[in-house]
């Protein structure tokens, strides 16, 4: 049975399992040196990781004594976008943007293994095929007998709590991430928008996100 936060009440604790430094170099030459954390006890049994970037320890310490909240992005896995640079979505550029902004501010990137808004990679590719036949990104999920968005952010709350993060500035345009984390006991003091990463190929996808799930995206009008 799938775990959902509303069923089981308080978020079960998770513990840090390993932390290790992984130097990164992006295709455009940008480099960052996050501390990568793995965890024991995440409720869905998947291998989610947290990347702590910049002066993250000071950012967390400061937030515990009333200073500004650390910048945190929960980023859902998108193999085609994050790894291969797919232009069907905005995930790759958003991930690159997030790493740099969090490294500058000090904070945490949660890399959540929730491919395809939780339906998995093969189902996402099936959904892409349906979108090529005219359905939008949400209709395609429904046509496959899946939810429009099956993501549950309990694991994100678990990881933040294990890292000692109680308050966050959340780097996202997705109001559901903010709402769920608040319900899970993480204080979201601010929702910080990501930039708009628009291409000819992702315009329909981003328009559906803005229209159907209230993503905060300033898109040009399409007639
Ligand atoms: N089912 C499905 N999933 C998609 C499609 N396009 C992208 N995705 C997935 O959508 C998710 C996007 O996740 P995020 O980058 O966290 O983005 P978001 O929830 O839109 O919110 P932001 O924080 O504003 O970026 C990834 O898991 C992608 O694999 C699609 O057409 N169908
Ligand atoms: Zn994507």
From TrEMBL:
Residue ranges of the GTP cyclohydrolase II domain? 34-192
| UniProt binding sites for Zn(2+) | 78, 89, 91
A GO cellular component term found in this entry reads: cytosol
> What SUPFAM superfamilies does this protein map onto?
RibA-like
Q: In which pathway does it act?
A: Cofactor biosynthesis; riboflavin biosynthesis; 5-amino-6-(D-ribitylamino)uracil from GTP: step 1/4
Q: Report the EC code(s) recorded for this entry.
A: 3.5.4.25
Q: Which processes are annotated in GO (biological process)?
A: riboflavin biosynthetic process
Cofactor or coenzyme needed: Zn(2+)
| Keywords from the UniProt entry | GTP-binding, Hydrolase, Metal-binding, Nucleotide-binding, Riboflavin biosynthesis, Zinc
Q: Which family does it belong to?
A: Belongs to the GTP cyclohydrolase II family. In the N-terminal section; belongs to the DHBP synthase family.
What this chain does, per the record? Catalyzes the conversion of GTP to 2,5-diamino-6-ribosylamino-4(3H)-pyrimidinone 5'-phosphate (DARP), formate and pyrophosphate.
* Name of the protein in question: GTP cyclohydrolase-2
Identify the coding gene: ribA_2
